[in-house]
Write a structure and sequence with these properties.
The protein is about 75% helix and about 0% strand. It is mainly α. Helix 10 packs antiparallel against helix 11. It comes from Coemansia nantahalensis. This is Pre-mRNA-splicing factor syf1.
């Protein structure tokens, strides 16, 4: 790049790719060099060759740069081609790397495509990301839906998320859902959500729901609704206590059974040892030597 021509530099980069000795950084440098000299399509092909050369997880970094540069170059003028590229990126992408591509794809649709297509991308993302990111993706999907079409449209999203996620994820979504209902003036629906979410919240270890519900009743309830909240809290506490005692009993029983199995195995091993040495003389160490 410093002493040769554009063509000689391209030839050097191409030879590195052919020999498969290029690093990911070399691919990025080559693509940037081509873009700098206005060879935009060749720059995009350099990214594609690097993606084919390295595979995942390196490919995800190249895809992220490639898709960002393509969107910066063409904006919405080649939206169908951009969509094809995003679909290609997602086709073989492992779930643990997919979130960034889904979000970028949705942003492309928001800025240059259609809002409903963006929301469909976010909906796909709730199923396409790894399990630990699903709750976050549902929240992101709900937030973008509220921004694009209104808070009332998020109800179906929260309900699907609560059904799809485990206890901790469902609790977080239910708390957010209750806040949305309160924002919409639906006090009774918000109260029903707090009561539903209470089954996931042990009062001893998770005070978030109970604090939020208490504040809610102080602001929007009355003495009867506050008493009902306290009754539910006691009921949930009793259930979690029962579950804890049951699990503790199971653990004690399991330990006892393991000890019995260990003793039986030791006895069996001793029997096998005795059978293997039938002529072994047993010496009674308790006998006195009075006759000597």
């Amino acid at each position: 790049e410093a002493t040769g021509t554009v063509e000689s530099c391209r030839a050097a980069y191409e030879r590195m790719l052919e020999l498969r000795i290029a690093t990911p950084q070399v691919v990025v440098n080559y693509a940037a060099f081509l873009e700098e000299h206005q060879y935009f399509e060749d720059s995009f092909r350099a990214y594609e060759r690097g993606i084919d050369l390295f595979g995942y997880p390196v490919a995800i970094e190249l895809w992220n740069i490639y898709l960002r540069r393509f969107a910066a170059r063409y904006g919405g003028t080649k939206i169908e081609r951009a969509r094809d590229l995003f679909e290609q990126a997602l086709e073989k992408c492992p779930a643990e790397y997919a979130r960034a591509i889904f979000v970028a794809y949705g942003r492309l649709e928001e800025e240059h495509g259609l809002a409903r297509r963006a929301l469909r991308v976010y909906e796909r993302a709730t199923q396409g990301v790894q399990g630990s990111e699903r709750a976050e993706m549902f929240r992101f999907y709900a937030a973008r839906t509220a921004a694009l079409v209104g808070a009332a449209a998020t109800r179906a999203i929260y309900e699907r998320g609560i059904e799809a996620l485990g206890d901790s994820g469902a609790l977080e979504l239910a708390l957010e859902y209750a806040a949305v209902e309160l924002q919409l003036g639906e006090v009774d629906r918000a109260r029903a959500l707090y009561q539903y979410a209470s089954q996931f919240a042990d009062p001893r270890t998770d005070a978030r729901l109970w604090a939020a519900w208490s504040e809610f009743e102080v602001a929007h309830g009355n003495e009867d609704t506050f008493r009902e909240m306290l009754r539910v809290k006691r009921s949930v506490q009793a259930r979690f206590n029962t579950d804890a005692h049951y699990l503790a009993a199971l653990e004690i029983d399991g330990q006892r059974k393991r000890a019995v199995r260990a003793k039986a195995q030791a006895d069996a091993a001793a029997d096998v040892q005795a059978a293997a040495n039938p002529d072994e003389v047993a010496i009674d160490l308790d006998d006195d030597d009075d006759d000597l």
